[in-house]
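Write out the 3D structure for:
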Amino acid sequence: MRPSPKSALEAVYEIVMATTHRAEPALSALGLTMSTAYALWAMDPEEPAPTMKVMAQRLRCNASSLTFLSDRLVKLGYITRTEDPANRRFRVLALTETGSAAREKALAALEESCPLIRLTRMEQDDLLRLLARTLIDPDRAPGGGSNREDGEQAGMAGFRAVAQAKP
């Protein structure tokens, strides 16, 4: 058994690594790696098909990495890569019916594999609220307020914006 994490960052890392390790057999059965599973995850079937540029931003990767990932998903029959009808200079990635089913299975495998399932629904909601506060502006350095109270007020205002935007 691993020792208890010494920081929140280490705990987040351990949760991601445990989830990855536990989900690997189910993802492998779908022909997916964690990277290709993340790419499917980033494609919301209820949103318009994203451009390659948008997907690279979502996945925080460069164009050549996304091309490699999308090539693998096209070969699996999970996505199509076509010319953007609005601007022929761009390519869009769209889930196929098979890809939507694989996406659902992959997300279910990740959720079932995540150690956070040990928490109650209320604990998960509390954790989500805390984590959402850190993601309001992930590029902004921490401690932007003049004191802790200012930072907490700014964080709560940002959280309320995120909470109100939730479907």
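Residues 144-167 have pLDDT under 50 and may be disordered.
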